[in-house]
Amino acid sequence: MTDRLEYILFSIFAFLVRLMPLRVIQAFGRFLGSFGYVIARRRRRIAIDNLTHAFPEKSEKEIKRIALGAFQNYVISITEFLWFPRLTPQLLRRFVRILNIDVFGEAYRKGKGVVLMSAHIGNWELIALSGAYFSGYPVTIIVQTQRNRLVDRVINRYRCMWGNSVVSMESSVREVLRRLSDGQGVAMLADQSAPMEGLYVTYFGRPAATHQGPAIFSLRTGAPIVMGFLIRQHDNRYNCIYEEVRTDDLVGYSEENVAELTRRHVALLEKYVRMYPDQWLWMHRRWKHVDKASGIKAETLSTSVSSEPSAHEAKVAEETRHT
């Protein structure tokens, strides 16, 4: 009963959003984000604390400005996502500019499939849609199943516009391997906190438990990692940029290579977050295990691998070992 009520409320809100022009819902999202910054005190404290550690050189006023922008960007992205059914190819071409789509195509032409990575920066839902449309290469998106299955089905239907498909994180390993072996692209977000027993990589000067899955997939299959970022501009349009993570000097699968490749894609993410700090999800507890990792020396974090990977990542490593 609760799920059905949530679904009805979600459907009504999504319907109302789609009644408005895109510019209006972006302004509406900005307003709701500002409101959320005021009332979501716990998340605001997390964002300000994360930013204070990440940018010790910035003033309190600047930190709060960035935190407010992060709340606004998050809600604008949600309202834009709910507007997706009205998105046409013509509007997408006006709304999104791909700066270097050739990186995307060159990675595919290697014939090993592509591990496409992004992060909760700009509009992370729109980048998969844009990449599929502009490149002509639909992707399989690894998603976390929502608790409310009715809402989950609607969200995934939006994600699958223009040829994309989804696979749940809980059952993704074999399907990811199959898609990569077929030369296809697999898209994932890996910027949120991994389990405490995972790999720790330095991110903004602090140890952060980081998912090893993308590096394991890449090193086991030979698929290049391409990171894509859809960055919001002042006029609420987007610039999309791709960068391939260097792997040519990492020969074969090993724990050391997994750690090094993970360090490289985390460093690339940090580069873009530093350039556009108000577009990343600072209200997430990215460093929630930092105190528990205090026994690891900071200077060794970028190359150290826990002897006990998470259950999902152990499954990834085990199943890729037999491909």
Order of SSEs, N→C? Answer: HHHHHEHEHEHEHEEEHEEHH
Extended strand count: 9
Q: Order of strands across the biggest sheet?
A: 1-9-8-2-5-3-4
What ranges have pLDDT less than 50 throughout 5 or more consecutive residues?
297-323
Whole-angstrom Rg? 19 Å
Quickly count the helices.
Answer: 12
Helix content: 40-55%
Q: Which sheet architecture does the biggest sheet show?
A: 7 strands, mixed
Distance between the termini: 44 Å
Strand percent estimate? 5-15%
Please indicate the count of domains: 1
Tertiary shape: globular
Structural class: alpha/beta
Mean pLDDT: 89
Give a description of the structure.
Strand 6 and strand 7 form a beta hairpin. The chain has 323 residues and is an alpha/beta fold. A 7-stranded mixed beta sheet has the order 1-9-8-2-5-3-4, with helices on both faces. The N and C termini lie far apart (44 Å). Helix 2 packs across helix 4 and helix 10 packs across helix 11. It has one domain.
